[in-house]
Structure formats: structure tokens, C-alpha cells
Amino acid sequence: MIVCALNQEVFTLLQSSFKNRNIYKEYVCLVEGKLRTQSGKIEVPLSRSRMNRVKREVSSDGKVSSSNFEVIDESNTCSKLKIELITGRNHQIRSQMEFIGNPILNDVLYGAKKVAELNENQICLHSKKIRFEIKNQNYEFETDEPSFFNGFLNV
Length: 155
Description:
The protein is globular, with a radius of gyration of 16 Å. The protein has helices at residues 8-19, 92-99, 148-152, and strands at 24-32, 39-48, 56-58, 63-74, 78-85, 125-134, 137-142. The protein contains three helices and seven strands. The protein starts with 7 loop residues before the first helix and ends with a helix. It has one domain: 2-Layer Sandwich (Pseudouridine synthase). By secondary structure, it is α+β, with helices and mostly antiparallel strands.
């Protein structure tokens, strides 16, 4: 999901809202395996990978990244999660899921196995909802996840 400002004033207000973490950002993803708990918070420091500059990794000299997660559904081989971003680091969800041992389906950059049914650039991560306030008016935008998500859970 992309939010675009149509003028400089709204751009500045949005920029401030993102910086101050006043924007609700919700994602849905499919990850390999089952998580150890049905909900929780992941908070780890992330920095650019020393081995692969495209990637992010958990590192003591990184910037804090925080996400809340909740298991929505699961099968024997994968789990569907709702993720609420608290911070918004580059590749945050992808690197956090790799760190906890449940990489996003088909995200081979972050340790997942290749899924034959998906093309190489297609990972199972979807920006589902964004909510914010501009000039005392509330905005909320939501999209459905891709139809193939449920196929992996045999729903």
C-alpha cells in the first residue's frame, strides 16, 4: 500500500506522523512452520547486513525495530500472521521473521525455502491496512490479501 501526498502541507504532516509513529500499519504474512506463541512483540536492533548489503540483520549496533504479531491461522507447515508495525525499518518484518526462525514463505533472501507455486520475486507478505489522521480527519485504507494466501493453509 502506498500513501501519496498531493501537496507540500499534507506531505509535511504525513512525514511528521510517520516520524512520531502516529500511523497504524498492519501487514499479513505467511511464514514457515508454527510459532512458539500465538501472539507477542518482537523487538530487535536491525542494521544493514555485513555479508549482503541488500539485506538487514539483527545486530547490536542496529536501530531498534518493534512489531506486534498475532497468529490468525496455521497448518502443519505454515502460519498466517497479523503484524502491526510499531517502527518502520527497511525489511523489518522479513528480518524479524528470519530471526525468530519462521521466515516468510518464498523469501529466500531471508532464509525461506523456494516455493514452486510462486515466482522468485513473490513473497507472502502483504500490506493490509493503514490508518492515520490529517487535519482532524481520520483516514483508513484496507486491501484484501492475495487469493493464494489461503491455498497454502488448505483453508
